[in-house]
Each structure stands twice: as structure tokens, then as C-alpha cells.
Amino acid sequence: MTGYLTTHVLDTARGCPAQGLKIALYRVSGNSHRKLAEMQTNADGRTDSPILPQDKFQTGTYELIFFAGDYLRATGQAGEDPLFLDQVPIRFGMSDPQAHYHVPLLLSPYGYSTYRGS
Prior knowledge:
The chain is mainly β. 6% of the residues lie in helices and 47% in strands. It has one helix at residues 68-74; strands at 4-11, 16-17, 22-29, 32-40, 60-67, 87-94, 100-108, 111-114. The strands form 2 sheets. It has a 4-stranded mixed sheet, with no helix packed on it. It has a 4-stranded antiparallel sheet with strand order 4-3-5-6. The longest helix is centred in the middle third of the chain and has 7 residues, at 68-74.
């Protein structure tokens, strides 16, 4: 089995999945970023397919950008501009070429957390 990457966004302020949140995935090498994918979350707060599927998986350093500000505005949770959270970057490494990496985001208008899920 080859590795792959998935993500999941939960709106902790509303207690539900974050539907319609745009996410971009970049491969990072030094100061260089190369965009690999852009997706939106579905009704379950997940992307419809892995954001980095098995056939494109490589070990290395990556960054997920969660467009939280757009989502918070769309759901009526945004405060005044500038927003406290607009784009949420999560930079992480994937070293096991056979692993399933899952990087969830728990989001509210004034805070977030992440972890390596399963």
C-alpha cells in the first residue's frame, strides 16, 4: 500500500462539520511552495477524495492552507475586519511512504487545533 493524505474540518463553535471550506495543499522545499491541490469540504467536513492520493504521494514537507475567513464569513461567525483568523496554515512532514496521514482542523472564530489523526 502506498501512503496518502486526508483532512477533516470541524467547526467547534457550532458543533458541526465545516461544510464548504476551501483547502489548498502545497509541497514545501526550502522557501519554495508548489500547489498540488485545491478542494472544498463536503457536508461531513471532509474532502470527497484524499487531498493527496496514493498515486501522487511522496514523502516530504507539506502545507495545508485552510481558508477559514471565507468560511467564517459565510456562516455568520466573522467579526470585524481584519479577522483574527483568516488563512490557517499547517506545515507538517510525512516520512513514511506507506502511511495514511490524516491532518484534521478543529476551528472556531478565535482559535484552532490540529493533530495527526487516523
